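User: I'm writing a short report section on ligand binding and want a predicted complex to refer to. Could you take this sequence and iron/sulfur cluster and write out the structure as C-alpha cells? A short remark afterwards would be nice.
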Amino acid sequence: MSQPSRLESDLITPITRFSPGFFAVIGCLLVVIAVAAYAWLHQLVFGLGMTGLNRPVFWGIYITNFVFFIGISHAGTLISAILRLCRAEWRRPITRMAEAITVLVLFIGAGNILMDLGRPDRALNVLLHPNFRSPLLWDVTSITTYLTASTLYLYLPLIPDLALLRDRVPKRRWFYRLLALGWTGTPRQQHWLEVAISIMAVLVIPIAITVHTVVSWVFAMTVQPMWHSTIFGPYFVVGAIFSGIAALIIAMAVIRKAYRLEAYLKPIHFNNLAVLLLVMACCWFYFTFAEYLTTFYGNEPDEMQVFWSKITGPYAPYFWTMVACCFVVPVPILALRKGRSIPGTVIASVLVLIGMWLERFLIVVPSLINPRLPYRGGIYHPTWVEGAITAGAFAMFLLFYCIFAKLFPVIAIWEIREGQERGIPETVERLKTYLPTEGPAGAAQPATERWGVWR
Amino acid sequence: MVIDLDKCTGCQACMVACWTENNQPLPDPTMHREGRVIEWMKVLPVQEGEYPAVRQRLLPIPCQHCEDPPCTAVCPVFATYKNPEGLVAQIYPRCIGCRYCVNACPYTCKFFNWSAPQWPGQMAAMHNPDVSVRPRGVTEKCSFCHHRLQQAKERAAREGRPLREGDYVPACMQACPAQAIRFGDLEDPKSAVSAERHNPRRFLLQEELGTKPKVTYLSEA
Ligand code: SF4
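Assistant: Sure. The C-alpha cells for the complex follow:
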C-alpha cells in the first residue's frame, strides 16, 4: 500500500475521526426529530384535525414543504450535470455535495406528502389503482424517476472513491468493498465509467426539469384562481434552481468550516455560484413580475381577490418579505464583487431560502382561501403539530446529510486528482482551440483539434 | 336537478334533510369555528349589487354533478369518478385523503373528514342504514342520494317495469316545503327537469368554466 497523499488524508480523515461537536449536532437533530415523531404520532391517532387545515384551506404547509424540498433537490443533479457538461473546471470540489443534496432531500419532499395524506395507510393505492390522468400520478412517476436517476448519478462518480476507502479505511471495509463493485481503476473501467457518467449527466437534466414542471402542474391543471397559469412550469423550475443553488452554497460553507476544507472550497467557488445565484434571482423576479402583472392587468374578479390578498391583504407581510428576501436584498449583495465573499453569499443564500419557502406558501394558501364561489373567507394558522413536523423534516435532512458526509468523502477525491493531473493541460489545449491558430492565414485546422473539446 | 330560486325561502330544510339522510356529523360550534362543517347541501348567502341597491340572495348548493367534472380527473386512485348513470361518485374505502379533488372543484363542494365523525347521545343509533358512515381521513360530497336510486331500481325490477319519473327523488327535494327543488332524468326529454331546458329564467353556476353542471338554477334576473 502506497503512502496516502495529502489529498487523500485531507478528505478521508474527516470520515474516520469523530469529534464531540459531531455528536452534539447529531444529538440536537435527534431531539428535534423525536419531537416531530411525537407530533406525527399525534396526527396519526387523532387525524388531520390536529392541523390548522380547514375548508377551504385544504392544503397547508405540508404541501408548501413538499414543493420547497423538491425545489431544493434541483441543487445538485442539475447544477452538477450542467457544470460537468460545460466542462467547468471549478465544479470539481462541489459536484458531490450538490448531488448528495438532491438524493437526500427528495426523500424529505416525498415524506411531506405522506404527512399530508388523510389515509397514509392507503398510500399504495396509488400503485394499485393508478389514474394516469391525475397530475399527482405524474408527480409520483417523475419523482421516482428522478430519484432513481439522481441516485445513479451520485453513485457512479462515487465508485473510484469507494474503492479508495476500501483500500485505505480499516473500518466498515465490507461496506465499501460491496459498493466499490471491484473497481481497480484499469483504463477500461475508467473509460466505461466516464461514458456512464456522461450519459447520466445528459439524461438527468431533462428529468430534473420535468420533475418541477410536473409539481407546478399539480396546481396549474386545476382552474383555481392564480393556480391556473401557463407559466407555472418554467416559473417553478426557475425557483427550484434558485433555491437549490442557495442550499448548495450554505452546505458548502458549513462543510468547509466543519471539515477544514479551506484549500478545496475557495472563495472563487463561492463567487462563481454567487454569480449563478444572481442570475437566477433576476430570472425569478422576471417570472414573478410577469405572473403578477398579467393577473393584475387581466383584472378577472376571482383572480383579483387572490391577488389583493397577497399584495395588500392578510398575506401582504409574507409577500413583501418574500420580495425582499428573494430579490431586493440579495441582488445588491451578489452584484457587488465585495458582496460575493463567503459570508456575503451565505447571507444572501439564507435569505433566498426563506424567501423561496414563503413563495411556495404564497402559491399554495392564498388561492385556497379565496375560492371562486362566494364564501365565508377562510384563514389558516398552522398548529404546533405542523410546525414540529416541518422542523423535523429540516432536521431529518440535516441528519441524512451528516451521515452521508461521515460515510463518504464529500469531495470527489478522484475528480480533484484528475483535475490536477489532466484538467490543467487539457484546459490549456482547449483554450488554444478557441483562438485563431498561429501560422499562415486561412490554414484549416485539423478536425481532431476542432472537435477535441468533446473528446 | 332544478332549483328555483324564486321559490326558495332559505329555510334550510334541505340541509337538515341531507344531514340526517346521509349520516353527516352534525355541526357544532367548534366545527364552525374551525371551518370544518360538513354540509353536502348548503345554502349560501350571496350579496349582489352595491349600496344602496344591495340584494341578498340565498343559493342552495349541492354538488353540481358536472358532466365534465374537474374533480374526477385529478384523483390519483379513481376514488372519485363519474359512474354510468352520470353521477359523480366517491369510493370511501379507496380514498387516500390527498384532497386534490377538493381543491380542484371550483364550487368547493367537497368535504374532508378531518376527524372521526361524532354524533351526540342517541343520535349515533339513528343512522340511515342505507348510507355508509365515512371514516376519518377521506373525502365526501353530495351523491344525489344515490342509495335511493339503487332502491328505486330494485323496486322497479321487482315489479318488472322500467324506472319511472318520480320513482326516485333525493332527500332535499322531498323536504323542501316550497317545492323549489325538482329532480328527474335529464336524458328523458319528457321529464320535468328537461322541460326547464328552455326556461328563460334558467342559468348555471359558473357556466363559463365549462364543467357543464347538472344542477340548473331558475331565477328572475
Ligand atoms: S361540483 Fe365539484 S364535486 Fe361536484 S362534480 Fe363538479 S367538480 Fe366534482
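A remark for your report: Chain A is about 70% helix and 0% strand. The CA atoms of residues 29 and 206 of chain A lie 34 Å apart.
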